[in-house]
Amino acid sequence: MNSPVARIGRAVDPVDEVLPLPQLATYGVQHVLAFYAGAVLIPIILSGALGLSHEQLIHLINADLFTCGIASILQAGGIGNVGVRLPLLQGVTFTAVSPMIAIGLSAGGGVPGLLQIYGSVIVAGACTYFAAPHFARLLRFFPPAVTGTVILIIGIALLPVAASDVVNGVGPHRMQDPVALKNVLYGLATLGVIVAIQRFFRGFVSTIAVLLGLVAGTLLAWACGDAHFDSVLAAPGFGYTTPFHFGLPTFNLFAILSMLIVMLITMIETTGDVYATGEIVQRRIRPDDIARAIRADGAATFLGGILNSFPYTCFAENVGLVRLTQIKSRWVVVAAGVVMLMLGSMPKAAAVVAAIPHPVLGGAALAMFAAVAVVGIQTLSRVDFNDHRNIVIVGTSLGLGMLVTAQPNLAAAFPGWAQTVFGSGITLAAITAILLNLLFNHVGRGSLSPTAAVAGRPGGLIGLDAVNAMDAEAFEQTFGGLVENTPWVLERAWAMRPFADTLALRAAFQNALITGSSEEQLQLMNSFADLGSAADAHNDYRLDPAGAEAGAAAGGRNEDARSEVHEMAQAYRGHFGFPLIICARDSERYQRAVLEGWSRMANAAAVERAAGLIEIARIANARFNDLVADANPIQTARARAYRNA
């Protein structure tokens, strides 16, 4: 009989587990249902904005689903150094909607606008693929002040598109006058169903609230005679997507620039989704994993431009589904990709979606786009608005973004080459936020100002941007003293960049400590010197050498005292196999520390290992407080409020 250890050693990682075919199919369809509404929404919105025909819309939906299938298989299954091989499903990014509308309209709308979109998508996809291994170095240029602003303006700028659909207008720049009350009621009914499902249902049903809302709204419109499905009967049962179906793409410099900004934001979104999924499936995420995920985004986006589709990213909705179901197998997402390939080859299914009335679609879009804006608000909540620079960055970017969103005809006042930038509130806000962040935090003395100071070291201060920009070696040299230069802790903390604030920096070390394996944690504990030993002499028995209070308590001890503590420490190590670890700042007197060591000899080894890790966390916190300026901003703010009271 095999031992339990041997069986565990051969156990398949849940991420790589291939489930039985019926389960793969069921869970794969569930992923598709959770993703479907968001997937088809973008081609419908874009088609309406560019004035495409019903037949062209059906082809766009088929192409989108077909390419989504390829992208998901590539990301979850992986080919070589492309694909992160985690349960991540790919879909068209909402970030691209408004810029694509601006690009298409600047080219005259219709098919010419579509071809210019595809040209920019192909170039941006190729650039993303080759930029993937270098992207980690650029993260410092995208702090929460930048990413939060962009995500917020994405949601806000898309809301007029949804509102236009609710009142049955065509595209974001058309007003319906007069507005038919029944159209508004269709939109509000769809939104009401979505809200009700999210309020009264849990689990899988709540994840497909948008899909159910679309179904309910469409059925209501059909019952009232305002939804027609004649095109479904006329559509063929089977079809396929041909490369460059609408013609060869055209290339415009500013359209490409807009799409490159979209892909930069997408790379940040993908990075967050990969880390979130890594936490769910309990797999450590390394820089190479991020690079493989972004390569898959780039490859899928490049392919999307060829197969008449759009830019791709990881779908956050499906990350939530993995957390909800705890089905961690990446092959479930591969199965979902196969389902999407099948749906993308069925024009009748696309015709059903294309028949959804605009007001119903607008009601669902209101919920989805507003949710995007809320994500931006959540991101901005991590920004320190006591720093005036952040107010300028966020305020100016939002102001310019809203200028274009509220006055879409503004772009006509600019030369043709600039209309792509000034025709999209998202593009203009993103460019503004990036440039202002560079100006205030990376150019001249801005990045060295006291308000940006984070880590204090002899000879100067290190700003948060500098910490985020450190390579692994510089990071280890700066923060190695927190954990006795134990490599695996420092590597995991460094991998959690970028740090939004000092709380995130502290949490990186704390999270690294608790996620180590038993062997790694034992290595960390054994990196501490025995109390009272020659190696510990420079610490004056203190494991926290920066502790002035402990130094005063222990300053008068003699060699007999050192021998006493060393004897106790040796006995402890001999009994447990690792050193006794005590944070001296938590011990009022040296003698109490000695007595505590002897009393702990009666504990179980597992208890002492846990106690040792807690002491290490206390030591690291104490050293962190001495090394990092404004190490606890919450405490600092409360103290400031108390002083001003």
Keywords:
mainly alpha, 29 helices
Counting H and I runs of at least 4 residues, what is the number of helices? 29
Mean pLDDT: 77
Label the overall shape: elongated
> Could you name the ranges where pLDDT drops below 50 across 5 or more consecutive residues?
1-10, 445-453, 455-460, 537-558
Share in helix: 55-70%
C-alpha termini separation? 72 Å
Q: What assembly state would you assign to the polypeptide chains in this entry?
A: single chain
Would you give an account of this structure?
- Helices cover 65% and strands 2% of the residues.
- With 645 residues, the protein is mostly helical.
- The strands form 2 sheets. A two-stranded antiparallel ribbon has the order 1-2. Strands 3-4 form a two-stranded antiparallel ribbon.
- The model is unreliable at 1-10, 445-453, 455-460 and 537-558 (pLDDT under 50).
